[in-house]
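In keeping with the milestone schedule agreed at the kick-off meeting, the structural modelling team has produced records for the first pair of proteins. Each record is given below as a sequence line and a structure-token line. The laboratory manager (R.T.) confirmed that both were archived under the project's standard naming scheme.
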Amino acid sequence: MFKYGILYACIGGNMAEVRIETNEDFERALRGFKVQCKKEGIVKRFRERQYYTKPAQKRRLKKKKR
């Protein structure tokens, strides 16, 4: 049985952290951690950095977004 701990993730200066108490359900803590990661934009930045994009391609995407 999982007693207590800390879940954390950090990408590019953004950090999400959830402390798990002894009586807290792990599934609930994990759900809260995912919400916090989404608010911080960690998942989005991770997906952006998952593959290398060439500078020219970045400019093209930036121009397309406008």
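The second protein of the pair:
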Amino acid sequence: MSPEMGRAEDVAKKIRIELEKRGLHKEPLGIDIVEPPVLFALQREGITVVDGQQIMSDARVIKTKDEIALLNTSAMMVDAAYDELYRAMKPGMSENQAVGLVSKVLYDLGSEYVEAVNAISGERCNPHPHVFSDRILRPGDPVYYDILHSYMGYRTCYYRCFTIGYASHAMIDAYKRCREYLDAAISLVRPGRTTGEIAALWPKAQEFGFPNEEAAFALQYGHGIGLAIWEKPVISRLVSLDHPYEIKPGMVFALETFWPSTDGWSAARIEEEIVVTETGHEVITRFPAEELLVAGAHYFTVNGPLATARETEAAPSQRVVDMVEASAKTERVGVTD
């Protein structure tokens, strides 16, 4: 409704009346989220509006047992979606088809809202976008996904990375590096440690192709997760080194890392969701990710299974090299002007 309809003023008046009934109309009113016309109307009613978002955010940092159970259930649904997706991926499948498959699995399992399925493949992996396309998967492609949905209000932020048919050595190396940064961060998750200690483990922006930490923000990253995708605490070299936050039991947050391949276009992206316990932590995202998974058919040659670690264009065999050299000597054919 547009401002001239007067609904903002009506809402503000009702709020003022309720505050007056309780003798609170002269007290500051904390608001989490507000539309500007309502904010301005409240101020015209003489109500002092203050930032209530930080209070609400702080109240949501520590989760109850019921909240952790719901977050676990929400993550379980994504486990199942990745299982179906892994079985379905093959050359010829498009990113948007993958999004449709994941969305169906989640809704069939009881999700009330699939906010996004970021499906990123091939040359789209680096730099990292956050939208899917109609790009078709091809043999040797890297592909990573971020699945964000809600079950009874509790969210997921859950990356997994794959290759189709086989993986290049550059992609395998990138995945190992990405996983190592993630595992190092997870190893520090326990009560008493700080977000600054975790952020300090991660590479500086300049080490993976960015001019500064703001430009690289959210690639080496941690964030609370609950009723919103991003909650406190935030973990990033951009803010956490100067403003560390103590890790406490009952926190639930996601840690996500990114590493580009040396080929200049592929990249790895992995994420885990973690519950902080009294003595350490528990990872609640269970679809396998300790090593790079190869999806699609495994190919066979006359000599047996085709290696899953290989290059799209193999180096010439010694026999081919000898053939080229012999031809040059015998035919005496060279480059002419």
